[in-house]
Amino acid sequence: MNADLERLILLQQLDSTADAARRRLAEGPEREKALDARLDAARHRVAAAKDQLARNQGARRELEKEVAVHQNRLSKFRDQLMAVKTNVEYQAVQKEIGFAQGEVKAIEDKVLERMLEADELTAAAKRAETELAAEQKAVDADRRALNAEHTELQSTIERVTGERAAAVGAIDKQVLAIFEMVSRKRNGVAVAEARDGICTICHVRLRPQVFNTVRRNDAITQCDTCQRILYFASKNEVQGSGFSVQGSGSAGSNPS
Ligand SMILES: [Zn+2]
């Protein structure tokens, strides 16, 4: 293989590696935000559960006050009962007592409902706390992994930058200029594999003589369409018919 072509392939690998690392690093703030959002959601569930429990307890206290009011009335009626003179009065007070007892019973039933509900709400609040603790642990672990990944990405970028500087020095200046120009125009991808007679990045079919030249890998050849520098990887050649009618990637999106 042409030595410069070989160096350009390496250069492209280095650029693509660095590019991917930079893009992944750039996602860092979003990924941090997603971790914060997970914790916020878990904290919110705890707060909501505690709030429900507090409202339950408030409602129960109100009901107990009502019971006390009716109990008070009951004891007054019982006092009155001692003082009544006639059977009619006696029955009237007795009726009031019966009514107040009914009230107390109804409210006490409601208190009981609230107490049962409180058991569920207390359990739910505890579950939310447990889940928050678990989420905190998981988020801490994810944050550590994220930081470790960032450190590794940084060191990848540093390593690649060093390797790139070394690789660039060995490449013919004119060839390098072509690479850099195409790289700028084509989103950082200046080298493309030619396979089955097609440029695998812009998916346009190469002229037969261009593909034949590329197959030899002994010169710097550019795609007529996207200008990328083409190379041929023999291991990827599946069948001998490089120029079949139906191109594998000629339809669909064109990322060039
Ligand atoms: Zn192309």
* Rg over CA atoms: 40 Å
Unreliable sequence segments = 236-256
Largest sheet: 4 strands, mixed
Global outline:
rod-shaped
Biggest sheet strand line-up: 2-1-4-3
Name of the CATH architecture of the largest domain:
Orthogonal Bundle
Helix content: over 70%
The average pLDDT value, as a whole number, equals 92
Structural class: mainly alpha
The SSE string, one letter per element, is: HHHHEEHEE
Strand content: under 5%
CA distance, first residue to last residue: 26 Å
Q: Please, what is the oligomeric state?
A: single chain
Integer count of domains: 2
Number of helices: 5
CATH topology group of the largest domain: Helix Hairpins
Overall strand count: 4
Which compounds are bound in this model? Answer: zinc ion
CATH class type of the largest domain: Mainly Alpha
Features:
256 residues; mainly alpha; Helix Hairpins; four-stranded mixed sheet; 4 strands; rod-shaped; disordered C terminus; binds zinc ion
